[in-house]
Amino acid sequence: MASRVLERSRSLFRSSLHHARIIWALLMRELSTRYGRDDIGFLWVIAEPIIFASAVSTLWATIKPPFENGIPIVPFTVTGYLPIILVRQTVGFTVSAVRVNEALLYHRYINTLHLYVARFGIEFFGITLAYISILSAMVLLNIAAPPHEILMVVGGWLTLSWLSFGLALIMGTLGTMFEFVERFVQVLTYIIVPLSGAFFMASSLPAQARYWVLYLPFIHCFEWMRQGYFGEFIVAYHNMWYAAAWAAILTLIGLVLNIFVRARLEVQ
Question: Using CA atoms, how far apart are residues 215 and 206, in angstroms rounded to an integer?
Fold first, then answer.
């Protein structure tokens, strides 16, 4: 019995390592194709979100009051803008993963899920490093204080990433089956921005509006991260079990849809 369990564990480890190597190779290929080898190359995946976040923060600091919901405007903007960029870019870039890389599926070891995960991974790691970099710079420059509870920030970021992956997987598989989905994704991600909690706190809403907005899973992640960052200085409304349940359901739906996509591509 013990030897059978050990053998299965070894087989699972070898299989996981095999898939990790494929995804890593696809990730490196995607970086090289998208950013090239000239100038700073793949560092653009980190630099681009930093530039956007810096520009938006500067604009908001210029046109808005110094504080928003009792929080200094620059850290308030950064802690909302980069997470929403994570959602938009992971969903937006994953939707076309199979269409632009369909030729790679002729390799027997590559499947559609590898392509989705590789594209998601590029955006996730790039924006995560950008988030860490810009928050660290703000602390060093005394623009913002260090996070009050770092584990809450990390937990919120990872749950938001999981939600984004589930939504990206669904949109990616639907985009492979129906061409119009790629255009619809742009509309969907624009709708998510004002409703996500990126640029407002739930506590600033009237009670009736807050009741309905909290049905949206994304806002729970933003509220959780902001409470982790700013601590007792804010009033936050969140239920991370609710957000995690949504993430699990979206991922499961995406994986089921992916089975149909793979079957359809094999028939073609």
Answer: 15
Mention every residue, 6+ apart, whose C-beta is less than 8 A from residue 172: 94, 95, 96, 97, 98, 116, 254
Helix, strand and coil percent figures for the chain, each rounded to 5: 80, 0, 20
| CB-based contact 167:174 (threshold 8 Å) | no
- In 3D, which of 106, 117, 133 has the Cα closest to residue 30? 117
Q: Categorize the per-residue pLDDT at 221 as very low, low, confident or very high, splitting at 50, 70 and 90.
A: very high
Find the radius of gyration of the CA atoms of the chain.
20
Confidence of residue 267 (pLDDT cuts 50, 70, 90): very low
Query: Which residue segment(s) compose the domain that 184 sits in?
Result: 2-267
Gap between the Cα atoms of 148 and 114, Å rounded: 37
C-alpha–C-alpha distance, residues 248 and 163, integer Å = 8
Number of domains in the chain: 1
Cβ proximity of 203 and 236 under 8 Å: yes
- Compute the distance between CA of residue 93 and CA of residue 95 in angstroms, rounded to an integer: 6
Helix (H, G, I), strand (E, B) or coil at 173: helix
3 band by pLDDT with thresholds 50, 70 and 90: low
Exposure on the CB side of residue 261, measured as CA atoms within 13 A: 27
